[in-house]
Design a protein that fits this description.
Radius of gyration: 21 Å
CATH class of the largest domain: Alpha Beta
Strand content: 15-25%
Number of domains: 2
CATH topology of the largest domain: pyruvate-formate lyase- activating enzyme
CATH superfamily of the largest domain: tm_1862 like domain
Helix content: 25-40%
CATH architecture of the largest domain: Alpha-Beta Horseshoe
Distance between the termini: 14 Å
Number of helices: 17
Shape: globular
C-alpha cells in the first residue's frame, strides 16, 4: 500500500530543514545586511553555532555535502585560520557577548582538524561567547579517521555528543559507496568516545544505497543497536549526479527501485522500534530517555539544517564555507568555493553569498511545515491565529489536501491536519502543499521516499 502511494506521490520534494528552502535563496547584494541582522539580535536570547569543515581524506560516492578531498594538512590549517577570522568578524557585529545553547561541527569531516586547531577554535568560542551550563557541543565523526589522540582532544575541547557515519555494515555495500568501515572499527571508536567522557552517541544510517537489500538495513540496525547509540538517523540516499558528479561512480542499475527503497525504510524503522527506540518524525529514532524522545513527546522538537533537534534557539549562526545561518530576519548562506571564502573572511569581511528575508507568509508556512515534520500533526487555525490571520488563509491548501486524505495519508478535522502512520513516509510531500516557492518552480530535489 505504502509502495503504491510512494509511486503516486513520487515527485521530488525538499527535505524541509528550512523554509524557504536553500534553492530559493537569492544573491545577497547588500553585504552589510547580514551585519545588521546580527546587530539586531536579542541579547537575552541564546544562539546556536554551526561550523562547517569542507575537507575529507576520501570521497564517499553517496556524499551530498560540500567537501574537498585532501591528503595534506596545509590547506586545512589555512582554513582553520579562516574560521577564526570569520568568528572575529561575527563577534564584532553582535550586540553583546551572546549566550550559546548548541554548537554543531559538520562537514566534510570536521574531526580532520588537528587537535591544536580544534581546541584553539573551541577556546576562541569560549572566550567570545557565554556557554550555557547545559550547552550541547556536537561533532560529526568519520570512524575511519578518529584515532585515540583525536578523541582525547575532542573531549578536552568540551565535545559532549558525537555523530558517527555508519551507513551500512555490509562490506559489499561499503565497497559500492567507496566507504569501507568495519563493525569492529566503529565499535572501537564508540568505546574510545565513552572512555573519554563523550557518552552521547548518534549513528547515521542510510537506505537506498547501491547493492543494498532489506536484509542489509535490518542487519545494520541490529548491529548498531549492539553499540547502543542514543539516537539513530535513517536517511534515504538521494541520487543527484547532476549536482554531485562523484555520484556518477554509482551505477544506476545497482540502485534499489521504489518498491525496494520503501521496504528498506519501513523494515529498518520497524526493527529500530522493535529494539526499543522511539520513532521521531520522518527519519529519526531515539532512546526513550534521550532528550530528543522527551522533546518529541512534549511537542518541543525543532528542525534545522542538521535535521531534527532539541535546539530551541531562534538563531543559528553558520560559520565556514557553504554554511547556512538562520536568523529571525531570514536565512544567509556563505560562498561555497573554499578559496573565495578564505579571501573574504581573511579580509575581515562576511562571506555571505545568498540568502532570503522571511515574510509573515513565510513564517506562517514555516511553522506549519515544522510542526508537520516534527509532530506529524498541526492545528492550522492555531498557527494562523498566532500570526493574526483568519482560517480562510489556507482554504486552497486544505482543498489540495483532500486527495491525501482520500488515500489515508492524513486526517483533516476542524483545521487540524494529522498524518497517519503510512503517511509518515510521505510527510515531505504533504508539507509541499504549503510550499508556495516549490509551486512556483526552481530547485531539483530528492525523491520523497
Amino acid at each position: 500500500m505504502v509502495t503504491d502511494l510512494a509511486k503516486k506521490y513520487a515527485a521530488p520534494v525538499p527535505r524541509y530543514t528550512s523554509y524557504p528552502t536553500a534553492p530559493h535563496f537569492s544573491p545577497f547584494t547588500d553585504k552589510e545586511q547580514y551585519g545588521s541582522w546580527l546587530q539586531e539580535l536579542d541579547p537575552a536570547k541564546p544562539v546556536s553555532l554551526y561550523l562547517h569543515v569542507p575537507f575529507c581524506n576520501q570521497m564517499c560516492w553517496y556524499c551530498g555535502c560540500h567537501t574537498k578531498i585532501t591528503k595534506k594538512y596545509a590547506p586545512i590549517a589555512e582554513y582553520a585560520d579562516a574560521l577564526r577570522a570569520e568568528i572575529r568578524t561575527i563577534v564584532k557585529a553582535l550586540p553583546t557577548k551572546m549566550k550559546v545553547s548548541h554548537i554543531h561541527w559538520g562537514g566534510g569531516t570536521p574531526s580532520i582538524l588537528s587537535a591544536d586547531d580544534f581546541k584553539s577554535i573551541m577556546a576562541m568560542i569560549d572566550d567570545h561567547f557565554e556557554m550555557l551550563p547545559d550547552a550541547e557541543k556536537a561533532i560529526e565523526i568519520d570512524p575511519r579517521t578518529a584515532d585515540a589522540p583525536k578523541i582525547r582532544a575532542l573531549a578536552e575541547a568540551g565535545i559532549n555528543r558525537a555523530s558517527l557515519g555508519v551507513q551500512d555494515f555490509n562490506p559489499v555495500v561499503q565497497e559500492a559507496i567507496n566507504r569501507v568501515q568495519s563493525f569492529e572499527m566503529t565499535a572501537d571508536v564508540v568505546t574510545a568516545l565513552r572512555a573519554n567522557g563523550i557518552e552521547r552517541i548518534n549513528f547515521d544510517l542510510m537506505y537506498g544505497l547501491p547493492l543494498q537489500s532489506v536484509g542489509d538495513v535490518i542487519r545494520t540496525a541490529e548491529l548498531s543497536h549492539e553499540l547502543k547509540p542514543d539516537r539513530v538517523a535513517l536517511f534515504g540516499y538521494a541520487h543527484v549526479p547532476w549536482m554531485k558528479t562523484h555520484m556518477k561512480m554509482i551505477q544506476d542499475e545497482d540502485l534499489p527501485g521504489t518498491d525496494q527503497r520503501v521496504q528498506q525504510a519501513i523494515s529498518a524503522a520497524e526493527k529500530l522500534v522493535e529494539l526499543g527506540y522511539v520513532q521521531i518524525g520522518l527519519d529519526h529514532f531515539a532512546a526513550p530517555d534521550d532528550e530528543m524522545a522527551i522533546a518529541y513527546k512534549e511537542k518541543q522538537l525543532h528542525r534545522n539544517f542538521q535535521g531534527y533537534t532539541t535546539d530551541a534557539a531562534d538563531t543559528l549562526i553558520g560559520i565556514g564555507a557553504s554554511s547556512i545561518g538562520s536568523l529571525p530576519q531570514g536565512y544567509v548562506q556563505n560562498v561555497v568555493p573554499i578559496g573565495e571564502y578564505k579571501k573574504l573572511v581573511l579580509n575581515n569581511g562576511f562571506a555571505v553569498a545568498k540568502g532570503i528575508a522571511v515574510s509573515t507568509d513565510d513564517k506562517i508556512r514555516r511553522d506549519v511545515i515544522e510542526r508537520l515534520m516534527c509532530d506529524l500533526t498541526v492545528d492550522l487555525y492555531e498557527v494562523l491565529a498566532k500570526h493574526g490571520e483568519t482560517p480562510e488563509f489556507f482554504a486552497e491548501e486544505i482543498a489540495r489536501l483532500r486527495s491525501f486524505e482520500q488515500d489515508g495519508l492524513i486526517r483533516v478535522e476542524s483545521g487540524r491536519v494529522t498524518v497517519s502512520e503510512q503517511g509518515r513516509y510521505l510527510v515531505r510531500t504533504i508539507c509541499a502543499v504549503f510550499d508556495t516557492y516549490l509551486q512556483n518552480g526552481a530547485g531539483k530535489h530528492s525523491r520523497a521516499v
